[in-house]
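Ticket #4471: structure output looks truncated?

Reporter: J.K.
Steps to reproduce: submitted the chain below (606 residues) through the standard prediction queue, then opened the result file.
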Amino acid sequence: MNAALARRGPDGEGTFVDAACGVHLAHRRLAIIDLEGGAQPMATADGALVVTYNGEIYNHLALRRELTARGHRFVSDHSDTEILLHGWREWGEDLPSHLNGMWAFALYDKPRGLLFCSRDRFGKKPFFYAAAAGFFAFSSELASLMAHPKLTDRAVSRTSLRKYFAYGFIPAPNALYAGTAKLPGGCNLLLDVGDPVPQLRRWWTFQLEPDQGLLEAPQAAVAGRILELLDAAVARRLMADVPLGIFLSGGVDSSAITALAARHAPDIRAFSIGFDDPAFDESAKSREAAAALGIARQEARLTLDAALALMPEIVGRLDEPMGDVSLIPTALLCRETRRHVTVALGGDGADELFAGYDPFRAVRAAEWYSRLTPKPVHRALALLAGRLPVGHGYMAAGFKINRFLRGLSQPPRLWNPVWLGPLDPAELADLFAEPIDPEDLYSEAIAVYESCRSRDMIDRTMEFYTRLYLQDDILVKTDRAGMMHSLEVRAPFLDIELVDYVRTIPAALKYRQGITKYILKKSLESVLPSSIIYRKKQGFGVPIGRWLADGALPMGPASPLEADLNAAAIEARIGQHRAGRADHRLFLWNLWVLRHMDLGGGRLAF
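Returned output as attached by the reporter:
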């Protein structure tokens, strides 16, 4: 199991065994903080507590001072890992609420016979587990977990597979194989090692709590507070005993991180990637941003053919399917960045927290449309939209119109998942050749919709993207792309002090008169040129629709994971896409990922 995590931790490994109690812990280390004293598994001096941990605690020095003042004695020089051991003794299960960072850890309390596991608020670091009678195992990756000798039979979860084609990712706590699960972000797991039945306890949930008084406050005050908190978040994430850099696409989020990092580390370098296809190339924007900020920038240029050739290798390293095609350029960027540094800062989280995606614009139009358009007229418009010419450019007009209208065929609580996902409920029923219950299929999205304290659809959309899409797509993509190349990626926008303030900002300050991320952009006017702040947003993509249509990206043979799917429906969609009669890029890409994953050994079944 530990060997399967070698890329996550190329700098060292260790094990701990308590044979009498049947507890075995292992760790692979990517050394970043306290290179000499941070080896794991780490134990207290008396051997009573042992921890194996993945992540970074950015406020560890402040916590060390606090714990030292309370009588705790540290052995390491400045290891953040040791904070977990002493923090458990001081605060018990309340330990995670004191941490500002990203983590997945398992802490063994030998005298009490307890294993305490925790995952950070947003699920930045992964935690897979399996439990059965008298047995519990966990790991940072599903492939590593499945290397356990008790998990040789791989029964695929039909529920997880349906949700994969519904969302484009598998939402926690679901996992690909039956009997396995993901510990959701913001959750702890506690078990008695003598009777290992996991007890899950949610300790944190992202919840918007808009303070309408902020609408009356001077905008400059709100913007200034955002900038102050973001600057502090960036500064915290510059701690490292190894070389550190920044991802710079030239968009507002990465440019903001770059500008603020340069305040604290003037010699820091930015890293970008460029492609030869101008429709998908952002290198000119990143070049302009680096020049405006006076930052040294390293650019790797790739032809799209080179990226195409590397795709099977990148997808083959996934141990659970995820259909975000930006995994490809992100993995290539991480590969090039790792040639120079061990840690990189990125802009993840800004779009979710500040209403930055296209669906935030669509929501207002959808509310207007759904009030004024009779259902028969909507059905007619949807049929007409299906006849629009197919275009494979970045976010082609026909693609956006068709997705907008198909979402509006559903009730408002399903707009966001249906807009986002590869297939809608009727298409899924066809693919799986069985009835589909939308309430069960989208249970996670419905739960987020119904638990949102605000009735504003912008707020509900922010909660959907932050609680589901961010955790199970964006952060998974970044973690897997980084760890494929032993690169740690940090997200200043997800600093808890910043998040706790942003949660109180009303939607009207985030999406205003058609401007996404309005108040964030206002906060950055003193640090970035307006040409960067207000330029049109472009995602990190590749021409996947075109490649699937012209045969540049062959679908390959069917995967064992498709055993119970409707083969005729699959072939029909492949044929329609290749003939230019329909745009099935999202479904076909998700299917391509399934077909090119390395499923490893063991027996596959349904």
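Triage note (M.O.): checked the attachment and the full token line is present. The first strand starts at residue 12 and ends at 18.
Status: closed, working as intended.
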